Amino acid sequence: MIANYGYRDGSGEYYVTIDTALCVECVGRWCVEACPERLFEIEMDDYDDEVVAIAPTARKLLKERCAGCKPTGGHVGLPCISACRPGAISHSW
Hints:
Structural class: alpha+beta
Order of helices and strands: EEHHEEHHE
Number of strands: 5
Distance between the termini: 21 Å
CATH architecture: 2-Layer Sandwich
Shape: globular
């Protein structure tokens, strides 16, 4: 399942997408520790598997909360994406 966390406003779309089929196979959950803003948390999905999700309190603040790692241009190697060994995490902006 593809889970999208985030929002759309007048300035754009700000979503973090997590492929839970890939996430469920990860044993380290390295993205949780890699995020300096602590946006990721572990939760149970509909199939009783542990997967990573964006914390509910952060879902409407992604543009601001991710800004430290993701300036408006020239970003490479985001900590959460680099830490995600299965490649389950992507950003829409």
